[in-house]
Amino acid sequence: MEKADLFGIGEFAKKAAVTGRTLRYYDRIGLLKPSSTDAFGRRYYSREDFAKLQKILTLKFIGLSLNEISDIIKYDVSESGFRKSLEIQREIIGKKIHHMKMVANAIDEALAVQEARDAVDWDKIINIINVVNMDNNWMKQYENASNLRARISIHELYSTNKHGWMPWFFEQLDIPNDSKILELGCGDGSLWAKNIYKVPKGWDITLTDFSQGMLKDAERLLGKDAHRFNFNVVDAQSIPYENESFDVVIANHMLYHVPDMDKAFSEIYRVLRHKGQFFASTVGRSHMAGMRNIIAMFEPDIVNSATFSHTERFQLESGIGMVSKWFKNVEIKRYQDSLKVTDAGALIDYMFSMPGNIKETMTVDKLKAMVKYLNDIIKSEGAIRIGKDTGFFHGIKF
After folding, report:
1. 115 with 100: CB under 8 angstroms?
2. What is the rounded average pLDDT for all residues in the chain?
3. Which among 28, 106, 305, 366 is least buried, having the fewest CB atoms inside 10 angstroms?
């Protein structure tokens, strides 16, 4: 990089509205290293460093500590991910704004009671404390948003089948117009958000998830169409609805997370009406095997951990017997697809998004070696090719 394209620490600090002392401190702790230094030790920063500093300052504003920010920054391997980073930051800031409004409303309630009674309502004060402490682990919020974005992005950007899993799966749901539908483990509601214009007005849809946070994400994603859905926190092992309440139950890539699947199947069977339909999607044994092989080259112990075996409890190969135990006329349909990845950073983001401790286990040196290996494949072969195996079971209750 030409020196003319760089900024001295004074100019960079002035443009970024931070102090030189802050930049020197960030350099010392390894949070933001200058792009170059000269023979006299003078620091020079590039335009890309403004984006890195923006991310640091925004994460600090959200509520993350410098140590937490450092853990995030040191695993940034792709300079092309600025847009994704900004989208995640915006999402978390939106959640923080919502949280702050809730705190403000709780304070307003306490003030209103005090003015009316001329006395402190201690229950209202306790309520303020509870609201302040609600969902304020911003590091966890950031990680969850980042992980979800990584999983979605790699499939949207690099899948060879451009139709997309969610539209394809939705098209397989042959459901009458006046049906009552239950989705278990709806996540962020992507199945419905991506197909909202195809959802019949006669469907009565209840979206459930074990996580209240995921349901809030689903409501946000559905936006102005959220009123068309019912939302409820539900454990699939204990579904809080009466017998034969639904015409259709959908479990989209979630059953392998359920501790007691027999209980879940029993509950699903119970709430389905006679001749009700059950749709359960999952992956096959070979799904993303190419990615596992790459990780095994650098972290072989991780591949043998529960992180990489959790789907084995309910896969396309093993799930057929479980579904057939409860439902009749069970069939499997597979979605033909694979990945053709041209950005090493996107694949590593996906690896880090998986359950477990891959990020914590992998050292920075191993990460650099993996990045080099992946970039060498992209340079020589044009892309990293990874096979996928995804599909669903369809059964009928008789």
Report:
1. no
2. 90
3. 28
**Tally of domains in the chain:** 3
CA 268 to centroid of chain Cα atoms: 26
| pLDDT of amino acid 378 | 96
Question: CA 104 to CA 165: how far, in whole Å?
Answer: 41
- Give the type of residue at 291: M
pLDDT of 80 higher than 60: no
Q: Which of 355, 245, 338, 359 is nearest to 290 (CA)?
A: 338
Residues 124 and 179 in one domain: no
- Which residues, including other chains, have CB under 8 Å from residue 171's CB and lie 6 or more apart? none
Range of the structural domain that residue 277 is part of: 159-396
Report yes or no: 89 and 59 within 8 Å, Cβ to Cβ.
yes
Assess whether 166 and 225 both reside in one domain: yes
- Inform me whether the pLDDT recorded for 8 exceeds 90: yes
| Burial (0-12, 13-18, 19+ Cβ within 10 Å), 194 | middle
Give Cα separations from 92 to 43, 191, 261, 315 (angstroms).
Answer: 32, 22, 33, 33
pLDDT single digits (tens) 316-375: 999 999 999 999 999 999 999 999 999 998 898 888 887 666 777 788 888 889 999 999
Q: How many C-beta atoms surround the C-beta of residue 209 within 10 A? A: 25
Residues 244 and 346 in one domain: yes
Residues 372 and 347 in one domain: yes
Cα angle 190, 194, 200; round to 5: 105
Residue 295's CATH number: 3.40.50.150
